[in-house]
């Protein structure tokens, strides 16, 4: 549910925590990085402008909605070997870091997206959601690294690695066909991985110019700011408290959910604690 940079930074923190518990474990960095983006690559399948063909992105949504313990059982069962290899453990650490943060952050992002849409009636809810997620990337990156998003080349978060690629294709083919009766092929999954890297390349703005250019194209074409809303600004718009640093009351659903005051920083930190505990118990001790 949060965007790519937040997931990358979260998994870095989790690995630091796990190193204290398992100093002997040497993780595969490429596998961790791909795992940290979870099933989001499925959601990007055939989603770029000009791409055609049958999309399998609906199955990514199924995985996002799965309860975490069910997802754990399904994923573990989709790996043929009883004892996970170093590459497999590394990928699983990243994947479940992603899944845990997604589930903790979902109510906050839903609330923030709807609040932003209410403040900007001309802005589509999905675009508001993209803006929230992209802005949280900017905030968390500054918090963790004191960096601007122009320093991050997003494709480096999805490194080229044939062994990792082969594992991911096999894992998701087994996972989707065995649990969701999915009409997918291994070629579809590989294509989704390639689409995801292309998307990351397009969303990288090293100069701060690309977003304004894309917005002009969207305006000229009479389209909503859908693609430009994925591109990160250098800093956040201070007219809205995206991270709820003020600890204002919020709730989701808005018409009856429990009142909460936690900030996104609180949720982010809790996801690190929970992910370390999960990986320790189910992956590195299993």
Question: Would you kindly provide a written description of the structure presented here, covering whatever features stand out?
Answer:
There is one protein chain. The protein has 286 residues and is mainly alpha-helical. Helix content is 60%, strand content 0%. The mean pLDDT is 94.
Structural class: mainly alpha
Q: What percentage of amino acids are in beta strands? A: under 5%
Q: Encode the helix/strand succession as letters.
A: HHHHHHHHHHH
Quote the distance from N terminus to C terminus.
Answer: 27 Å
Rg over CA atoms, rounded to whole Å, is 19 Å
Averaged pLDDT: 94
**Main sheet makeup:** none
* Multimerization state: single chain
Total number of strands:
0
Give the overall shape, derived from the CA principal axes: globular
Poorly predicted spans: none
Number of helical runs?
A: 11
List keywords for this structure.
single chain; about 290 residues; mainly alpha; about 60% helix; globular
List the helices and strands and how they pair.
Layout: H1 4-21, H2 29-36, H3 40-43, H4 58-65, H5 68-77, H6 86-119, H7 125-145, H8 162-179, H9 186-203, H10 210-221, H11 264-284
Q: What's the quick description here?
A:
With 286 residues, the protein is mainly α. Helix content is 60%, strand content 0%.
